Structures are given as structure tokens and as C-alpha cells.
Amino acid sequence: MYDFFVGLLTPIMWGEAWIMTAWHKLFTLVGIPEDSGWGWALSIVGLTIIVRIILIPLFVKQIHSSRRMQLIQPEMQKIQAKYKGKTDPDSRQALTQETMALYKDTGTNPFSSCLPILLQSPFFFALFQLLNNLPHIAQGTHAEVGPISRSIAGTIEKSSLFGAPLSSHFLNAPNLNTQILTAVLIILMSLTTFTTQRQLMRKNMPDSSLDNPFMKQQKIILYLMPFFFMISGVNFPIGVLLYWLTTNVWSMGQQFYVIRRLPAPGSAAEREYEERQKRRGKEVKKLQLKGLENRIQDTVAEAVEPPKVITGQRQQPKSKKRGKAQRPPRPGEAGAPGTPQDTPGI
């Protein structure tokens, strides 16, 4: 299974090797020594930037999908409330069908928000494999990867950043410099991720979603994430940590742009955006989903009962006295002639 997974990553490893060596040649031309660790470290940064540029169209799609998902949340909550507590198969099937119909009517895809993360993961693991195998490539016990031959792998192995080899880990650190640099990179990774997620939750979340069980779980995950980086970061080479830190900084910049220019509907960032637009005298444009508007109009139309149309002349109601003829009292009954009447008090 592991060999199959590595086999799938091989084309990506080749592409990353070509991009890294191309960046390294560029940095060598501008005066950075060929065997310097700074040249290869900056090459990893350049590789990260290329990957993130490639993913920009997916990122834009993710933003639009996320905004659509936020707009349809009220309708989604109505559907969930309709089938709350119903666990029979018919109700669960109806819940699924109405949810999918809502997605179709509004052009929303809940999986689009996960695409950038899912597609970036292979690049991350491919770089991990590439840097992890550098010692074996230099020794000739592993096949060469694209332009990274035995000599180039040996050069990368000998290069260092602040005295720390790029392919070394915290756990197998050859010196104290490696442990210090790894710890600094892990701390910076934690800070950038925490800042990105915190500004997202504070400014770019609708007010209606700030106080719910899901958001409370997200807050817990936010504060536990630094511990996750501490546990996992000690197992990654310094080169991978550089890739991770660079992509976090890129994500933080992208998130800042989105919060300022494309805020989520109903969020604090949207109110700040509208105030800025009004001060500049510009029109405030809001995202409108035609399918969602049609569904809301249909719901309102169903809730209002149309007035009954009555044709012809209105029939007057008849009282019982007028509608039914009274018979005369029989002899012996009260009110009959000659019948003695009861006198009160006697």
C-alpha cells in the first residue's frame, strides 16, 4: 500500500524537483553560492509560491462556494428543523432529497470548499518524500528524481540553513542549531495558522453561526492546533517545515484579502466593507442567489392562504323561529286555552 501511494506521488515529485532546480539556478545567477543552503531554502519557497498560484482558481471557487453556503444556512436550518427527531428511513431520505434540491437550486457545492486543501496535500507529501530520500539518492540507494541526480542530492545534503541541514528532522538533529531552527519554524507555523483562523472566526463568520455547537468545537480546535503542530512538526524535515510556513503565510494574506474585499454575508467584515463603500460613495453590491430567492418567494406564497371567491347572491341565514313553523299547543300543555298557569310564590 505504501509503495502504491509513493508511486502516485512520483510524477508530483518529478515536477517539484524540476521547479526547485529551476529556482536554484535563478538564485545562483543573482549571486547566491551554488552550495549555499539559502539557495535551496529559497527554492522551496519559490516552489510553494508556484503551487499556490496554480491553486488560485480553486481558491476563488472555494470562496464563492463558501459564501453561497452561508447564504443558504437559514433555508438549511428550516429543512433540518422540519425533520428533527425523525429517524425513520422515509424521513431521512426526504431530508437528503430536500437538501440536495436546495444545493441544486442555488448552485451550491459543499465540497468545493475542501478542494484546495485536498489538492494541496499531494504536493506536501511529495515534497516530504523528496527531501526524506535525499540521503539515499546521494548514496545511490534510491533512484534519481528528475534533475536531482546523486551529485545534486549530495549538494543539497551538505547545504545548511543557520547550520541546520535542510533534510534533517528535530528527532534526528545532528546539532543544537537544527533543534532551535525546527522549534522556531514550528512556533511560526502555529502563530500564522492561529492568526488566520482567528481572524476568520472573529470577522468573517455570520452572526447567526457564532453561537452554536459547531462553532464551539472550532474554537477548541483552534487552541489545540499549536499542540498538533508540536507533535507532528518534529517528524518533518526542515525543508518541509519551510514549505508549510510559506503556505501558511500565503493563506494568511489570501484570507486578509477575502475578509476585506469579499466578506461573508451577515458578518462583521461585511458591515465594515459596506461602511467603507458608503464613505467612498460607491454602490454596495451583495451576492444574490436566484434559486434561493425563488424558494423564499414560494415559501411565502404557500404560507399566505388565498381568499375564497364566492359567486352568486349571498344567502341570508334563517333563525330557527323563522325557518320552522310552530304548531299550536295541545290541550293540557302550557299556553293552551283553559290551562291553569303556575303562579310564582304560591
What would you note in describing this structure?
This protein is mainly α. The protein has one domain. Helices cover 65% and strands 1% of the residues. It contains 14 helices and two strands; from the N terminus they run ααααααααββαααααα. α2 crosses α11 and α6 runs antiparallel to α11. The C terminus is likely disordered.
Structure in a nutshell:
The chain is mainly α and 346 residues long. It has helices at 2-29, 37-54, 56-71, 73-82, 89-106, 115-132, 134-139, 150-158, 176-203, 213-233, 238-261, 268-279, 290-303, 320-323; strands at 160-161, 164-165.
The residue-averaged pLDDT reads: 76
Distance between the termini: 112 Å
**Which spans of ≥5 residues are poorly predicted at pLDDT below 50?**
296-305, 307-312, 339-346
List the helices and strands in order: HHHHHHHHEEHHHHHH
Number of domains: 1
Shape: elongated
Largest sheet entry:
2 strands, antiparallel
Report Rg: 36 Å
Largest sheet: spatial strand order:
1-2
Q: What is the structural class?
A: mainly alpha
- Helix share of residues? 55-70%
Can you count the beta strands? 2
Strand-residue fraction?
under 5%
Query: What's the total helix number?
Result: 14
How do the helices and strands line up, and which of them pair or pack?
Blueprint (H helix, E strand, L loop, with lengths): L1 H28 L7 H18 L1 H16 L1 H10 L6 H18 L8 H18 L1 H6 L10 H9 L1 E2 L2 E2 L10 H28 L9 H21 L4 H24 L6 H12 L10 H14 L16 H4 L23
Antiparallel strand pairs: 1-2
Helix pairs in contact: 1-2, 1-6, 2-11, 4-5, 5-13, 6-11, 9-10, 9-11
